[in-house]
Design a protein that fits this description.
The structure holds two protein chains of two kinds. By secondary structure, chain A is of the alpha/beta class. Chain A contains 24 helices and 39 strands. Chain A is elongated, with a radius of gyration of 31 Å. Chain B has a single domain (about 10-125), classed as Rieske [2Fe-2S] iron-sulphur domain (Rieske Iron-sulfur Protein, 3-layer Sandwich), CATH 2.102.10. Helices cover about 0% and strands about 50% of the residues of chain B. Classes of the chains: A alpha/beta, B mainly beta. The interface of A and B includes residues 564 and 850 of A. The structure holds flavin-adenine dinucleotide (FAD), iron/sulfur cluster (SF4) and FE2/S2 (inorganic) cluster. FE2/S2 (inorganic) cluster binds next to loops of chain A. Chain A: Pathway: Nitrogen metabolism; nitrate reduction (assimilation).
Chain lengths: ~850, ~140
């Protein structure tokens, strides 16, 4: 039998989920599906739209597995809009004139941004905030305008969306003011008290707020575009760009015109199975008016998609009701509301805790016996949101007030969530499903749990809870996920860093006695402590007890190779080297018989040096003006650069000069893992800077800085941290970024996973390093200044100290005898280590004189 | 484990105690016998915090390179006791310095024909001289 034909109108988030669920479950291929999408691209993550301003590209917003769209049973028609539905003939007609006959039709047309009636709404510079094209246009407009003047932005609407948009304007450098018609911000979710606390937090970010302000007119600027807005009370405000976020309305025109029932406030009316009054037509997502209302959140839309698929396949699923819990996604402002946030349940009690100075307001709504949680509002500190939301409708253990106190206060009892409690409302994943994934399906890290259950893959607000559940479950399985460094320290690296820094400790013995559990450390904690002390109490790697902490690479300041010999890399800052320098390096390599190779970081690496040869090699290199290139350290490795504007026809900035300066600034900086930088002189990016932990790309106005890139096993592209910085700001930003990483990353964690883990993700990092949201920047700046001032070349310092040089003897009783097991054979004009078989022949019968 | 033929045992002085940095290793070359033929064997000497000196083979059975003296010295809890250890600088296998036993093969196999456990040598410290019980050779 030929598969029946499902036509979906609208290629948004809910349509994507519907197709995904259908292809997942319809294993017999009883349906083929055609998606008619007005937008010219595949469905994308609208919820994460604002992250587009954080340098994300449209591809980063992709939803699900792109292979879905290659499925032979799936057709995606992009950039064509459905304009009419003939229900009698069961045909949809598109704008292009094409027609699509259906066996079943699903309307998934979402909403449009509503623009309140006002004069001037059609002026250039007035934007809505709904699609990728909207935000791309907004970004372009603001950046162009910013070249000539300080841009002032006005956002109409103080709800979730308006605040997100204001955050985006702020990120673009436009000074935003939010105009809210109601008495307070986010009036649909939080009460007046919460709204007041929220206003203070938002103000602190540099975003202005005016409540009870209705905009009546948008007035043009004399140079074109918008110039001002006028409020109902006659006030006029300067505005170079206006973002309208005044609410959304369902795109129910196809339903209306084809005679389907429409709700009193719009939306195609559906029953609990998502069917309209035509049994061949369903509606899902924001366009559906279900149980009397249209729901402007993605989670209920996903549920409707699942219900519809189940019904198409003959199941009996029904829509059970919507969770309208919400959390604001604005960096630096923590707001969440859930359940009966306005205490509308008869007899409901409110428990409120407020710290007006700190901008914190928290409220729990409890049943009349103060035992069952009905809902709540959290402003300023929503850390409890993930664990409280699933408890709605359940009894809270202990005193509800305990859940509202600041973290580290009285300590809320640990919530053991029932299996059926919903943890991820976006994707409708229960606590039980997560436990099952961990215990039965072998998902032992967050990535696995996310891809297996979908929990945490949309808005991300449930991630802390998902993490916690996973850890508890792993604990039960006997798998330890404790953040303890090793058996000798229960603290994580970040905690130990702070502890050591604050306590001002200088030696391993002090550290292990003060913060260790027992014993004398191991190959995990010793190098970690070495790395911590290197930035909290700098000293030479071989000074006193420090020497006992170093991995062999740091101990001998060279890179251990497979046969026990080492490789040596002199610094060539920015990849720049003089002809004399190259000759000197060549002579050293020739004289010591070293194999030479050019590295990916633009250096010359010389292999096959014995431990006892290292000081001799350094002597020669240091005399020729070189120093240690720190190729061996968990530290700054290289700053790679393209040739830049001094030579390149395209270059707009001197990338080499910047790279040299940065390398000399950060050389020797010990860190949780190696750090690499790259600088490109223009957008052509010849230095591949976005594959580096910190990548800098010249623009004609300054420098763009990207963070969190790496090559290797899991390659990552760096993400934009800030744009068009002048050199001074750039350096300060990198200083802070690096030290914030040094202080808070886990051991052996590169910057990319660190950014994912650290509080607030990339936004959080930006808030810390650009806006000093933690108030630590002065400290970081001072720490970097000390690093720069204290730097010394480790090789030279070793050469100057006979005690240190003793460590480079091959044998304590035969210091000049080379390791007799090393053997090399020629290959392509150089040497390579002999294989085991070759060696058996080469080194047989060694006889040596031994001191006794 | 070491088996020593008493008659062939010689106490060889390899260095002074102060030549050994605490909680790090150094390598030494000592006379040895393999199949009754005299050879030189590379030994790794470790001086602990309490000045105990321990000796194991310098050869790492997992990487087939002579590197163990360059590993990080530490301790590991085994049956409620802190056992002195060294971790191979190559691939992080952990060995008990007193017995040579491999405590953690780090998911790897030793190279063909090698035991994962290390050979050990008895050590004495007499008047600041560090002496190793070696077989044959220097006698
Ligand atoms: C900036 C922003 C932040 C948000 N944050 C959150 C959040 O944190 N949490 C949350 O739950 N929700 C959030 N939302 C809301 C969420 O994005 C929507 O609930 C969700 O996208 C609804 O999915 P949908 O498929 O119903 O509609 P949409 O995703 O809007 O998709 C509808 C698609 O149909 C197309 N279409 C319409 N008419 C036609 C036609 N006639 N022919 C062809 N195609 C048509 C539209 O162009 C659109 O692409 C946010 C929305 C925005 C804009
Ligand atoms: S990135 Fe630009 S400036 Fe640098 S080499 Fe390439 S084209 Fe030239
Ligand atoms: S609640 Fe949004 S991703 Fe889980």
């Amino acid at each position: 039998m030929d598969p029946r034909h499902l036509v979906v109108v609208g290629g948004g988030m809910v349509a994507q989920r519907l197709v995904e669920a259908l292809r997942d479950r319809d294993t017999d291929g009883t349906w083929r599906v055609t998606v008619l999408a007005e937008e010219p691209r595949r469905p994308y993550d609208r919820v994460a739209l604002t992250s587009f301003f954080a340098g994300r590209s449209p591809e980063d917003l992709a939803l699900g597995d792109p292979a879905l769209w290659d499925d032979p049973l799936v057709t995606l028609v992009r950039g064509d809009k459905a304009v009419a539905v003939d229900r009698a003939a069961r045909v949809v007609r598109a704008e292009s004139g094409r027609t699509f006959a259906y066996d079943h039709l699903v309307l998934a047309t979402g909403s449009y941004a509503w623009v309140p009636p006002m004069e001037g709404a059609d002026l250039d510079g007035v934007f809505v905030y709904r699609t990728l094209d909207d935000v791309a246009a907004l970004r372009g407009y603001v950046t162009t305008l910013a070249e000539e003047r300080t841009v002032r932005g006005v956002v109409l609407g103080g709800g979730l969306l308006g605040l997100e948009a204001a955050g985006a304007l702020d990120a673009l450098g436009a000074r935003p003011t939010v105009l809210q018609v109601d008495t307070h911000l986010m009036s649909a979710q939080v009460d007046l008290g919460g709204g007041e606390a929220l206003r203070r937090l938002v103000n602190r970010l540099g975003i202005g707020v005016r409540t009870q302000s209705m905009t009546t007119r948008v007035l043009p600027h004399r140079r074109g575009g918008v110039g001002r807005v006028e409020l109902a009370d006659g006030t006029k405000l300067d505005a170079d760009v206006v973002v309208v976020a005044a609410g959304v309305r369902p795109r129910d025109e196809l339903g209306r015109e084809s005679g389907l029932a429409v709700g009193p406030r719009g939306g195609v009316v559906v029953d609990d199975t998502c069917l309209t009054d035509d049994p061949h037509v369903s509606a899902v997502g924001e366009v559906a008016c279900i149980q009397g209302a249209c729901l402007g959140l993605v989670a209920p839309g996903y549920t409707m998609a699942e219900v519809t698929v189940d019904r198409l396949l003959g199941g009996a699923a029904v829509f059970g009701g919507a969770d309208t819990a919400t959390k604001l996604k604005l960096a630096g402002v923590d707001v969440a509301s859930f359940g009966d946030a306005f205490a509308r349940t008869p007899g409901a009690l409110e428990v409120v805790w407020a710290d007006p100075v700190g901008g914190v307001y928290k409220k729990l709504v409890m049943s009349d016996d103060a035992r069952t949680l009905l809902g709540g509002v959290l402003v300023g500190d929503a850390s409890a949101y993930a664990s409280l939301r699933p408890m709605v409708g359940r009894e809270l253990p202990g005193d509800p007030a305990a859940f509202l106190l600041p973290e580290g206060g009285a300590g809320a009892p640990d919530l053991e969530l029932p299996d059926d409690a919903s943890v991820c409302s976006c994707n409708n994943v229960s606590a039980g499903a997560i436990r099952h994934a961990v215990a039965e399906d072998g998902c032992h890290d967050l990535g696995a749990v996310k891809s297996c259950t979908r929990a945490g893959t949309s808005c991300g607000s449930c991630l802390p809870l998902v993490k916690k559940l996973m850890a508890t479950e792993l604990g039960k399985l006997g798998v330890t996920v404790s953040s303890a460094l090793c058996e000798h320290f229960t603290l994580s690296r970040a905690q130990l860093y702070d502890a050591v820094r604050v306590a001002g400790l200088r030696t391993f013995t002090e550290v292990v006695e003060r913060f260790g559990t027992h014993g004398r450390g191991c190959d995990i904690c010793r190098p970690a402590v070495a790395s911590i002390l290197a930035t909290t109490a700098p000293a030479h790697v071989l000074d006193g007890e420090r020497a006992t902490l170093q991995d062999t690479n740091d101990h001998v300041m060279a890179n251990l190779q497979k046969d026990g010999s080492y490789s040596v890399v002199p610094r060539m800052a920015g990849g720049e080297v003089t002809p004399e320098g190259l000759i000197a390096v060549g002579e050293v390599a020739r004289d010591f018989g070293l194999y030479t190779k050019i590295t990916g970081g633009q250096r010359v690496d010389m292999f096959g040096a014995r431990i006892d040869q290292l000081p001799l090699i350094w002597r020669r290199l240091v005399d020729a003006g070189f120093e240690s290139g720190h190729a061996y350290g968990k530290s700054l490795r290289t700053v790679k650069s393209c040739v830049g504007s001094t030579w390149c026809r395209f270059g707009v900035q001197d990338s080499v000069a910047l790279a040299v300066m940065l390398e000399l600034r950060y050389r020797g900086l010990r860190s949780p893992h190696k750090i690499k930088l790259g600088v490109s002189g223009c957008a052509r990016e010849c230095a591949e800077a976005r594959g580096k932990d910190v990548g800098i790309i010249a623009t004609d106005k300054g420098w763009n800085v990207y963070v969190g890139g790496n090559g290797g096993f899991t390659p990552r592209h760096a993400k934009l941290l800030a744009e068009d910085l002048d050199t001074e700001t750039l350096v300060r930003t990198i200083d802070r970024f690096l030290l914030y990483y040094v202080r808070t990353a886990d051991r052996l964690q590169r910057t990319a996973p660190w950014i994912e883990d650290v509080e607030g993700g990339l936004e959080g990092v930006r808030a810390v390093v650009m806006d000093d949201s933690l108030g630590i920047c002065e400290d970081l700046d001072e720490q970097m200044a000390r690093h720069v001032a204290d730097y010394e070349d480790e090789w030279r310092a070793t050469l100057d100290d006979p005690e240190k040089l003793k460590r480079f003897a091959s044998f304590v009783n035969a210091p000049d005898v080379p390791d007799p097991s090393l053997a090399y054979v020629p290959e392509r004009g150089q040497v390579r280590p002999a294989t085991a078989d070759e060696r058996a022949v080469l080194v047989a019968g060694t006889t040596l004189e031994v001191r006794s | 484990m070491t088996t020593l033929d008493e008659r062939a045992t010689t106490w060889l002085t390899v260095c002074r105690l102060e030549d050994l940095p605490r909680e790090r290793g150094v390598a030494a070359l000592v006379p040895d016998e393999v199949d009754a033929a005299p050879v030189l064997t590379q030994v790794a000497l470790f001086r602990l915090l309490d000045d105990t000196v321990l000796a194991v083979q310098h050869h790492d059975p997992f990487s087939d390179a002579h590197v163990l003296a360059r590993g990080i010295v530490g301790t590991r809890r085994v049956d409620d006791q802190d056992v002195p250890t060294v971790a191979s600088p190559m691939h992080k296998q952990v060995f008990d310095l007193r017995t040579g036993t491999c405590l953690d093969p780090a998911g790897k196999q030793p190279v063909a024909g090698r035991s994962p456990d290390l050979r050990t040598w008895p050590v004495q410290v007499v008047d600041g001289d560090v002496r190793l019980a070696v077989a044959g050779g220097a006698a």
